[in-house]
Design a protein that fits this description.
single chain; alpha+beta; 5-stranded mixed β-sheet; two-stranded antiparallel sheet; 21 helices; 6% strand; binds 2-acetamido-2-deoxy-beta-D-glucopyranose; Cytochrome P450; signal
C-alpha cells in the first residue's frame, strides 16, 4: 500500500518539524531562535511560552526527560537574549495567575536571584502550594496540619522558624555533621546492575524525569536517613502513587476520588513513621513546644516527600538521576573524577544540573518598580504581584562562574572544585553561607534554605558509590 495524500501530508509536516527543530541543535540557530521568540512574540504570552518550550525539545535527551522542555534548565535562554550582561537581570516567565495573558518577571542573574533568596523578609503566598490554590482543592490532598508548608511561609514568620527548629532538634540526619550516618541499603530486590541498566536505557529513552528504580533507591534511603524507618516494597509503591496522584493537581487535575486516595496513602506512611523512633521523638518534642505532635509529623512527611524526595518530579530523586546519568554518560571520565572528590563532584552536579524546584516560586513583590529587560523593553512590576527566580540560570552567571574572561562556556563546564564552587543557589541560599549557620534552623547569613541541603548530598554520595559498584562488576563480567 502506497502513501496516500493525507499520509504524504503528515510525512511532509513531520519532516518540516524535524528540520526546523533539528536546526536548533546548531548553536547559532538556537541563539537566533531564542532572540527571535523573545523579540517578536512578546505581545502574545501564550505563543511566547509555546515557542520557548518547543525550542527546548532537542534538549530533552540532554536534560533527561519531558521536564527538559521547561524554560528553567537552559542558561542559553538567558545568554542569547543578553540578560546576563544587559538590563536588570530579569527574564519573562509564565505567570501562574494567568498564563494566557501575562508574565511575571523571573530573576536570572546571580546577583538578582541571591537578592531574593537572601532577603530576610521575603514574602510568600500562603494561599498557594507551588501553583495550587489550596483552599479550593478537594478534601484529602492536604491533610490536617499539613498547611501551611515551609514553602508557603514568609521568611521572617516565627512559625517558620519554630517548625524548622523542631526539625533541627529531632532529626539528626539533616545536620551538617551528624554523629551517626546510616549506611546505604538497596531497597528489597534491587541490585546495582539493575540500576546501571535502568540509567543506560534512560540515556536513550528519557520517558520519565526520574525512573521508578531511582525513585525507589532514593526514597528508601531518604526515609532511612530522615525518618529512621525502612519502607517495604508495598510502602514504596504507595509513596510513589501518593506523589503522582497528588502532583496532578498542579496541572489542574484534582478530583474527589484523587483526594480520597491521597488521604489513604498518606495515612499508611504516617502510621509507619509514627511507630518509629524518629516519629515518637518528633511528636513528643512538638508537644513539649506547645504544638500538636500528630499534625507536625504529617506536615514533615508531606514536606519531605514532596520537596525532599519529589517522586517523578523535582526533588532529591531528580538530583540523583542527574548524577547517575552523568556517571553513565562517560564512565571512563566521570567515575575516576567522582572517586577523587565525591563531595565536590556532587556539588558541581547540583550547580550545573539542579534537581529541585526552579527557584523560590512564586514570591511576593515588595514594591512597585519599573524594570528594563535586556531587550530594552520597560516593564512595571507592582507590589503584591508574583515574581520568580531561576536558580540554575544564576548558577551559570558568567559574572560569578565564568572565570577570568567571564565566559558562558567556562560557566557551563563541569569542573568539581572550581572557584566559587559553593556560591550556587540551588539550595536557595548560597551553599557557602548555609554552612556558616550553627544548625539547619537557619541564621542571618542564610535566612532561608533547603532543609535537605546536607542529607541530600550524603545520600547522593552513597548512591553514587553503589552505582559505580554496578558499573565495575559489569566490567568484570565482560572481561
Ligand atoms: C539552632 O541555632 C540557633 C542559633 O544559635 C539556636 O537559637 C537554636 O536553639 C538552635 N536549635 C537547636 C535545635 O539546636
Amino acid at each position: 500500500m502506497g502513501c496516500g495524500c493525507f499520509c504524504r501530508l503528515v510525512v511532509l509536516l513531520l519532516t518540516a518539524l524535524a528540520l526546523l527543530f533539528g536546526c536548533l541543535c546548531v548553536p547559532q540557530v538556537e541563539r537566533a531562535y531564542i532572540k527571535f521568540v523573545d523579540t517578536y512574540t512578546y505581545g502574545v504570552p501564550l505563543a511566547h511560552l509555546a515557542l520557548v518550550v518547543l525550542g527546548q525539545v532537542p534538549r530533552i535527551w540532554q536534560v533527561g526527560g519531558p521536564l527538559g522542555v521547561g524554560p528553567v534548565w537552559n542558561p542559553w535562554l538567558v545568554d542569547a537574549t543578553d540578560a546576563y550582561s544587559k538590563g536588570d537581570g530579569l527574564m519573562l516567565f509564565p505567570n501562574p495567575d494567568n498564563i494566557a495573558s501575562s508574565y511575571m518577571l523571573a530573576r536570572v542573574t546571580h546577583e538578582k536571584v541571591r537578592e531574593v533568596h537572601h532577603n530576610p523578609t521575603a514574602k510568600r503566598d500562603i494561599s498557594k502550594f507551588i501553583s495550587v490554590e489550596t483552599a479550593t482543592s478537594p478534601p484529602g490532598y492536604f491533610a490536617d496540619g499539613v498547611l501551611p508548608t515551609l514553602l508557603q511561609l514568609n521568611t521572617d514568620d516565627p512559625k517558620r522558624y519554630a517548625h524548622r527548629d523542631l526539625l533541627s532538634a529531632t532529626m539528626p540526619s539533616i545536620a551538617q555533621s551528624p554523629d551517626h550516618v546510616p549506611g546505604f541499603q538497596a531497597p528489597p530486590g534491587v541490585s546495582a546492575q539493575d540500576l546501571v541498566r535502568d540509567i543506560s536505557l534512560h540515556l536513550w529513552l528519557p520517558l520519565k524525569m526520574v525512573t521508578n528504580l531511582v525513585q525507589d533507591v532514593f526514597a528508601f534511603n531518604f526515609f532511612r536517613h530522615a525518618f529512621e524507618v525502612d519502607l517495604s516494597h508495598e510502602e514504596l509503591q504507595m509513596l510513589k502513587e501518593w506523589l503522582s496522584v497528588h502532583s496532578r493537581i498542579i496541572v489542574g487535575l484534582s478530583s474527589i476520588s484523587g483526594g480520597k486516595r491521597c488521604a489513604e496513602l498518606a495515612k499508611v506512611l504516617e502510621d509507619k513513621v509514627a511507630a518509629g523512633a524518629f516519629g515518637q521523638r518528633l511528636m513528643k518534642e512538638a508537644e513539649r513546644r506547645g504544638m500538636v505532635g500528630a499534625d507536625r509529623l504529617r506536615k514533615v512527611i508531606f514536606e519531605f516527600s514532596f520537596a525532599g524526595f519529589g517522586g517523578d518530579g523535582p526533588g532529591g530523586g531528580l538530583a540523583t538521576m542527574k548524577l547517575l546519568r552523568l556517571l553513565q554518560s562517560k564512565p571512563e571520565k566521570y567515575v575516576p573524577m567522582f572517586k577523587k572528590d565525591p563531595e565536590a563532584f556532587i556539588l558541581e552536579v547540583i550547580r550545573t544540573r539542579g534537581g529541585g524546584g526552579a527557584g523560590m516560586n512564586p514570591w511576593i513583590v515588595e514594591s512597585t518598580q519599573t524594570h528594563t529587560l535586556s531587550t530594552g523593553r520597560v516593564v512595571t512590576e507592582t507590589a503584591g504581584s508574583h515574581g520568580a527566580t531561576i536558580a540554575l540560570h544564576a548558577n551559570h552567571d558568567p559574572a560569578v562562574f565564568g572565570g577570568p574572561k567571564r565566559d558562558l562556556d567556562y560557566a557551563l563546564a563541569f569542573m568539581p572544585g572550581r572557584e566559587n564552587a559553593d556560591r550556587f543557589l540551588s539550595f536557595v541560599a548560597e551553599y557557602g553561607e548555609i554552612k556558616k549557620c550553627p544548625n539547619v534552623t537557619g541564621c542571618a547569613e542564610a535566612p532561608r534554605f533547603c532543609m535537605g541541603t546536607f542529607v541530600l548530598q550524603r545520600i547522593m554520595k552513597q548512591i553514587g558509590f553503589f552505582y559505580i559498584e554496578g558499573l565495575e562488576s559489569q566490567g568484570r563480567q565482560e572481561m
